[in-house]
């Protein structure tokens, strides 16, 4: 059986990696006024953050139309027997549900939709793991079983520099955002039950990042093979510094750097930093 791997643009997997592993990507969109841009296709993360600075209003975001999923699945059916489709948390987007619906509509191919319950390159970990297994000829059932196994060891924490984006985007309550703003709090957030919720409230950016390091230390100190990713919102130099620091301390971990692209960046704002990992 030949299995295709699909994910959405919010995994922010580099194009060369997607091409090398044969991962198919369906884009979400960011909307400035009446202008709609498909992220990773029509607008880059760097272009997005520049555009935000020049606008008075925050952009909005939209998920892929179900019809786009159906088109992709039908096209893949010409070459593949099944699809494993990995998507951002269903608690913050309807993208996963769109893939489920499209899978029911695509008659010529069996679709296995997977709710990553996270986003960004931590979601990308699932798609990469799935693609590596598909290349070895593993069945979709075996791949889904492995993805659920990965879910048991995956962790992701991120620090937001400006709470107004989360507040206006409806991803964090207004009261929480106000309290954070007044106290200059840099909250550490994570996903619980598919939703973005505060993990801890910390008073400075440096202390917040150090706390995330502490959480990573607990797992990395076990010495098991791990994959980790540093994620930044238009802070590439800071991400490189974090990677170098972690690599020196835990050389047994496989590191990469990724970014909060337009759709997720709309909700987190510039300056956000994240760290995600799982045991291989």
UniProtKB/TrEMBL annotation:
It comes from the Bacteria. The keyword Transport does not apply. InterPro entries: DegV, DegV_C, DegV_domain_contain. Keywords: Lipid-binding. Signal peptide: none annotated. Transmembrane segments: none annotated. Pfam families: DegV. One of its GO terms (molecular function) is lipid binding. NCBIfam families: DegV. This is DegV domain-containing protein. It comes from Metabacillus indicus.
């Amino acid at each position: 059986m030949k299995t295709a791997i699909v994910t959405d643009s919010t995994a922010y997997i580099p194009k060369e990696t997607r091409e090398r592993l044969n991962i198919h990507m369906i884009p979400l969109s960011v909307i400035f006024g009446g202008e709609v841009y498909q992220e990773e296709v029509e607008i880059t993360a760097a272009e997005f953050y520049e555009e935000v600075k020049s606008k008075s209003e925050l952009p909005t975001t939209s998920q892929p139309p179900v019809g786009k999923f159906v088109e992709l699945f039908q096209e893949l059916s010409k070459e593949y027997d099944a699809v494993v489709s990995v998507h951002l948390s269903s608690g913050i987007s309807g993208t996963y549900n769109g893939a489920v619906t499209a899978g029911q509509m695509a008659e010529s191919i069996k679709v296995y939709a997977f709710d990553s319950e996270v986003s960004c390159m931590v979601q990308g970990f699932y798609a990469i793991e799935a693609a590596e297994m598909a290349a070895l000829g593993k069945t979709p059932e075996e791949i889904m079983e492995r993805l659920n196994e990965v879910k048991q060891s995956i962790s992701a924490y991120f620090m937001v520099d400006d709470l107004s984006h989360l507040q206006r985007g409806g991803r964090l309550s207004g009261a929480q955002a106000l309290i954070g703003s007044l106290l200059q709090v840099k909250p550490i957030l994570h996903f619980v039950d598919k939703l973005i919720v505060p993990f801890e409230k910390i008073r400075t950016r440096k202390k917040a990042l150090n706390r995330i390091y502490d959480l990573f230390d607990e797992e990395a100190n076990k010495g098991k093979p791990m994959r980790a990713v540093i994620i930044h919102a238009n802070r590439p130099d800071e991400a490189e510094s974090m990677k170098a620091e972690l690599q020196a301390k835990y050389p047994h971990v496989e590191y990469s750097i990724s970014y909060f692209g337009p759709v997720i960046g709309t909700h987190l704002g510039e300056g956000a930093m994240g760290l995600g990992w799982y045991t291989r």
